[in-house]
Amino acid sequence: MSETSTLSGGAPHPGLVLASASPRRVDLLTQIGFPPDLVAPADVDETPLKDETPPHHAERLAIEKARKIAADHPNQFVLGADTVVACGRRILPKADDAATARKCLSLLSGRRHRVFGGVALIGPDGKLALRRVQSAVAFKRLSDAELEWYLASGEWEGKAGGYAIQGLAARFVREIVGSYSNIVGLPLFETAQLLTGRGVRPGS
After folding, report:
1. How far apart are the first and last CA of the chain?
2. Rounded CA gap, 171 and 40, in Å?
3. How confident is the model at residue 1 (pLDDT cuts 50, 70, 90)?
4. pLDDT recorded at residue 4
5. Can you list the positions of beta strands (E) in the chain?
6. Mean pLDDT of the region 172-196
7. What are residue 12's DSSP bridge partners?
8. What would the CATH number be for the domain defined by 4-197?
9. Residues forming beta bridges with residue 115, ordered by sequence position
10. To 5 degrees, how large is the angle CA 82–CA 5–CA 25?
């Protein structure tokens, strides 16, 4: 995929760069007609700041990702995004091992939690546009057998909060309030509005 797309008249216009390594975000953008011209993962420190709230954490990381990649692609639209799973004010980590996944799932079992999505877009003019989305998810109470079954699947690996709602964990979800795609990794309605509002063309 090239960074610069071409209009029907032959004039070049800025491409869309996704500042994320997530294949889910690539698929979601493609689903709504905005396949990225370039995928450029942003390596940023995702450690929460002291007293940082979950929604501010999602916003800050989305902005940091977009700014880091925009520095290398100044003439493009650069989209950064982050998804934060929170239980109260507690920010749950990405599960890099089974022990972390077990702690997350045990905490979420039988409870309602929130998923915050931050989406930041930096245009060729350097201006930043930002959206924040909140979804609520209610989990059933997990039995020991269900927990062990899900941990054995390995689906939790690298997932915020230790689960992927678009996969096997869907069977645990009693209720969703708000954007489903936000829980998967990118709030599609808000992202589409953000892109079209800045002049990014679908299918570019």
Report:
1. 10
2. 33
3. very low
4. 39
5. 4-6, 12-14, 16-18, 38-39, 77-87, 90-91, 112-122, 128-139, 173-177
6. 97
7. 6
8. 3.90.950.10
9. 85, 135
10. 20
- pLDDT above 80 (res 13): no
Residue 10 confidence (pLDDT) above 60 = no
Q: What tokens were used for 181? A: 């795609």
Q: Is 43 a catalytic residue?
A: no
Q: Which of 43, 82, 96, 144 is catalytic?
A: 82
Task: Specify the DSSP class assigned to residue 94.
Answer: B
In this prediction the pTM is 0.90
How do strand 16-18 and strand 77-87 relate by DSSP bridges? parallel
Question: Does residue 52 have a pLDDT over 70?
Answer: yes
- Residue 203 has a pLDDT of 75
The amino acid that residue 140 corresponds to is: K
- The stretch 188-200 carries a mean pLDDT of 95
Tell me the C-alpha distance between 15 and 21, whole Å. 18
Task: Give 155's Cβ-side CA count (13 Å radius).
Answer: 14
- What average pLDDT score do residues 153-166 get? 96
CB atoms within 10 A of CB 169: 23
Alpha-carbon radius of gyration of the chain: 18
Q: Which residue has the tokens 């892109």?
A: 195
Alpha carbon distance 41, 156 (integer Å): 21
Is residue 11's pLDDT more than 50? no
Distances (CA, A) of 68 to 41, 46, 62: 10, 13, 10
Interatomic CA distance for residues 87 and 72, integer angstroms? 36
